[in-house]
Amino acid sequence: MKFKEFLKKKDIEISLKRYGIDAMGAMAQGLFCSLLIGTIIDTVGSSFHIPFLTNTVATVAGTDYTVGGLAKAMSGPAMAAAIAYALKCPPLVLFSMITVGFASNALGGAGGPLAVLIIAVIASEFGKAVSKETKVDILVTPLVTIGIGMLLSALIAKPIGDAAQAVGRLIMWATELQPFLMGILVSVIVGIALTLPISSAAICAALQLTGLAGGAAVAGCCAQMIGFAVISFKENKWGGLVSQGIGTSMLQMGNIVKNPRIWIAPILASAVTGPIATCLFKMEMNGAAISSGMGTCGLVGQIGVYSGWVNDINAGTKAAITAFDWTGLIMISFVLPALLSLLFHAGVKKLGWVKDGDMKLKA
């Protein structure tokens, strides 16, 4: 059997879409269902003083865990299993990825998500390759999958994690040094990634993008989601406002392909709100890094900023949450994206670049 025929038989597709879009998007979902949910649970517990959510519910190897802490501890296995699911792995490979995810995330350190992505993809494909090729599949498939995953974790997880963390630190350092310019760049780039069929949340998580850079990323994502929601209101009404405003602006991707100029208004809005977030309001994302790339999706970006405030107060680096903090969050997340997008959209319509119906979502 030829190699290409073997790959096709095993559904191993070596492509940017499979690895850069499907796997990365699934990784973000795995992060959402573990790290992000755990962060939200911890934030709710500490903010409202709920004993069940703040008390230790388990102690493992001398480490105390809350309910949210247990959820966050499972981020590696959740990411790897989600990636394996996206790669259409058979059950034995999928279940083996739980071990691989734990190892690669733990050894990858702060840049663990990127290590998980790369190692889980490779281990999954090797597992798929040997799956059902022997009469002792129940032994061979988990051994190969876990063996490859553990070997790669030992060899490359830390270097990958360190590299991702270094890039993230560089972006955050540059944003601190040049908040205006980097506010624009980070906001625009992460916002565009949010609307493209790739995962801005996974990118932010992999690079551990927090601080001022994280705040700029939130601004860019909000500009895309709220921007498209309001400028397409005439075509899509309230359903479109909700589905794009707290769902995803990715729904407009098909229309962007037909007429890329509909993207001008949200992108310009993000170029304005980014530096306002970094220079005027000094809005930081000190919650989970994945929240930086979520925008108003389920209000996760806003919850992340708030959880960062709580973390800073608990750490003693912030005295209290001020009215100026809330004003900045509301303006950057909702008010400015809506007003600026409408203003820029009116301009592109006047130029004849966009016409009514160009942003109509399919039912």
Total number of beta strands: 2
Count of helical segments? 16
Order of helices and strands: HHHEEHHHHHHHHHHHHH
Indicate the mean pLDDT. Answer: 92
Cα-atom radius of gyration: 22 Å
What is the count of distinct domains? Answer: 2
Helix content: over 70%
Distance between the termini: 44 Å
The description of the largest β-sheet is: 2 strands, antiparallel
Q: Based on CA inertia axes, which overall geometry fits?
A: globular
Q: If strands are numbered along the chain, what order do they take across the biggest sheet? A: 1-2
Strand content: under 5%
Question: How would you portray this structure in words?
Answer:
Helix 2 packs across helix 15 (300-315), helix 11 (211-231) runs antiparallel to helix 12 and helix 14 packs antiparallel against helix 16. The protein has two domains: 3-164, no CATH class; 178-350, no CATH class. The protein has helices spanning 3-9, 16-47, 51-54, 67-73, 75-86, 91-108, 112-130, 137-177, 179-195, 200-207, 211-231, 233-245, 253-258, 264-280, 300-315, 323-350, and strands spanning 58-60, 63-65. Helices cover 73% and strands 2% of the residues. The mean pLDDT is 92. It is globular. With 363 residues, it is mainly α. Strand 1 and strand 2 form a beta hairpin. The chain contains 16 helices and two strands.
